[in-house]
Amino acid sequence: VAKQRGKNRYHRFDQELDRIALIRGETLTQIEAALINNQFVLYFQPKVNMRLGKVLGAEALIRWQHPERGLLSPAAFLPDIEGTEMVIALGNWVFARALDHLQNWQNMGLNIVISINIAPRHLLHHDFVETLRAGFAAHPQLRPHCLELEILETAALEDIGRVTAVMKECQKLGVGFALDDFGTGYSSLTYLKALPAETLKIDQSFIRDILGDPEDLAIVAGIINLTAAFHRQVIAEGVETEEHGLLLLKLGCDNAQGYGIARPMPAGDLPAWIANWLPNQEWLKKPALPSP
Ligand code: C2E
Ligand code: MG
Ligand code: MG
Ligand code: MG
Which residues form the signal peptide (predicted)? Predict the structure, then answer.
């Protein structure tokens, strides 16, 4: 009887696996179709220097304009393609679209830096650097300095040596790097020391409760001091309120991104947003910290 029950359980487990495989297969096929049918769009969220009241650039964030389900956030579809080759096809699409937008804005006289998120698998793909080079070759007026790649610090887990080599190749082209969601990985300090990223992006989970949680405050202050010691730039994500900004300025972090500045917006809205942005007056009043 026990054997029979075990067998039944195995069957059910098997069927469950089939069901998951089916869903996964469908999603992959749908994402492939969505790419062909032009259903992906890039939204852009500004990055600013709070103390100077200056727009630095914007991060490109992918959305799926789904015909039935509406505008889908990356959390609704990126996990389904992680670990598949679709990550590379989609990543290449994001890169190509970002260059188109950059070209468009440069033609309008807007000089900003666009950041794109790069999946670990994409960065380590053998064609990655060549794709960047070809992209810029197709846009000879664009300066590669206008592009920044955000990589998750966990990306390096597999092979710090290879990641470093790819980063250096990209930097030779002029492209910059930010370590995204900094502080959430297992070996943040190892990465800080080993990876040649110009910028650290403090994860929003540390910023959220910075005003009430002394431990989060200590972590953020620590990261900001580390970036200074390592001669890196620092930016905080998830800046939702004036108070968040004031505290970050006090700690020595001038650069920020978050709903308190702007939500991600369609590409077409960005030029007008930049033209009309009124920097927070309390932020502008903060004097610069003396450099250590
Ligand atoms: P991320 O790179 O850390 O991007 C920041 C996320 O936080 C965005 O969510 C953004 O809308 C959200 N956010 C910004 N400011 C605030 C704030 O003040 N408060 C709160 N609560 N949230 C804020 P989104 O657009 O849903 O993206 C989620 C993640 O998906 C991104 O995290 C990134 O890891 C990934 N992603 C987005 N676009 C791409 C892409 O083109 N390629 C790859 N590989 N990953 C992408
Ligand atoms: Mg990012
Ligand atoms: Mg992030
Ligand atoms: Mg994040």
Answer: none
Residue 259 one-letter amino acid: Y
Rg of the chain on CA atoms, in Å: 21
Please, which residues bridge with residue 113 across strands? 57
- Which residue owns the Cα nearest ligand 1 atom 17? 238
CA distance 151 to 29: 26
Beta strand 113-118 with 70-72 is unpaired
Is 73 a pocket residue for ligand 1 (Cβ < 6 Å)?
Answer: yes
| Distance from C-alpha of 113 to C-alpha of 173, rounded to nearest angstrom | 15
* Structure letter (DSSP) for residue 223: H
Q: What is the pLDDT of residues 42-53, one digit of tens each?
A: 999 999 999 999
Could you tell me the pTM of the whole model?
0.92
Ligand 1 centre to CA of 218 (Å) is: 24
Q: Specify the amino acid at residue 281.
A: Q
195-251 confidence digits (pLDDT tens) = 999 999 999 999 999 999 999 999 999 999 999 999 999 999 999 999 999 999 999
The verdict on the CB of residue 241 being under 6 Å from ligand 1 is: no
Contacts of 7 (CB under 8 A, 6+ apart): none
User: What residues have CB less than 8 Å from 292, skipping those under 6 apart?
Assistant: 228
Cross-strand partners of 71: 65
